[in-house]
Amino acid sequence: xxxxxxxxxxxxxxxxxxxxxxxxSPVETFSTYLSDIKCLVQPMSGLEPVLAGRKYxxxxxxxxxxxxxxxxxxxxxxYNGNNYSIIEKIIYPDTYTKIVVERND
Length: 105
Fold this sequence. Notes:
- The longest helix has 4 residues, at 48-51.
- This protein has a single domain (4-103), classed as Thrombin, subunit H, CATH 2.40.10.270.
- It has a 6-stranded antiparallel beta barrel with strand order 1-2-3-6-5-4.
- 4% of the residues lie in helices and 57% in strands.
- The mean pLDDT is 86.
- It contains 1 helix and 6 strands.
- It is mainly β.
- A hairpin with a 2-residue loop joins strand 4 (76-79) and strand 5 (82-92).
């Protein structure tokens, strides 16, 4: 069963697009890939990042979305105007996908 009725938040994604500058040097460019993806965003509790065994850039969120969402581990997530990197992605077949993101500074 897909928990789509719980998805009340929205995120956008940006995906890496290889490009070069005027001098021909490679440049990291992220372009909008998907917009208005329905999801559920939950902040991780204060201890969760410590228990996970590494120090994260706060804030850290868990985001639950449709299992069929085309989100790659290298994508950036845009939520409330801030950019986040995906640090973990878990797919629960036939139900939902959970990603954990940390803020890009």
